[in-house]
Amino acid sequence: MAVPQEFHHIRERFRQEVEQHLNDAAAAVRGLDPRNDAVLDRIARHLHAIKGSAPIVGARPLSAVARAAEESVLLLREQPDLWSPDLETILLEAFEFMKVQVHEYVDGKAIDAGNGMIETLRTRFPGAEEAAKRVKAESSKISVKISAPSAASGSQRRILFVDDSQIARELYKVFLVNRGFQVDTAVDGDDALERLRAGTYDLVVTDDQMPNMDGTELLRLCRADNDLKSVPFVVISGKANEEARLKAVEWGAAAYLVKGDFEKEDLLEIIGQVLG
Questions:
Q1: Which of 134-138, 158-162, 200-204 has the lowest mean pLDDT?
Q2: CATH superfamily name and code, 143-275
Q3: Please, which pLDDT band fits residue 239 given cuts at 50, 70 and 90?
């Protein structure tokens, strides 16, 4: 798939971030205790991040393999006795395969679709797709509650995009700017709060899981601030978690999305709805 011209300058950074996720996931897989849900969750989140960001830059085949690997890990939450040295080898081979895919992407080559690797994962982790659906069933759907339109005037609406991932900030900024929005970015909730108090924004789009201050805490603080309480929020989470979704909605989020379970065009449509 051809990569849009405006994304060329961040190919290398995308590769670095993907490889870091894969290296961290591989370190957790080696010697894995499949009954340790916290470690399984950490591995799945690395794969989920790749699955969500790859389609944005035009590397959808990489996303497909990441999805199959993530589902394999989620299966282990239900069937830890399935784990074996052979399955550890299969997962590590999948990670190395994804590294090849991301290098193909950076070099401008056709990306291997990964059908063989996906089939291997499906065969060796039977029922993984169904297990993943059960794990995500509580909150994998897009949840939207339309807020009142922003009172700001002007043809270009100003959005603050908050995410601790540099690649996510750059990708979504390019995407939204090309759709006619003015976009500023922040690296975490603390940074975002400073920018919100210093400027005027029509909408905040924020990741939920971030260091220092997460997206839900940022939302809560804004709702307690008379100057910021009316700013609409769209919260994006890397984890399908009903408790987190309910907390975000309770504090007045206009929408709650799960990474990897929506396309960027879906986000654009929701932004349009929220801004009226």
A1: 134-138
A2: Response regulator (3.40.50.2300)
A3: low
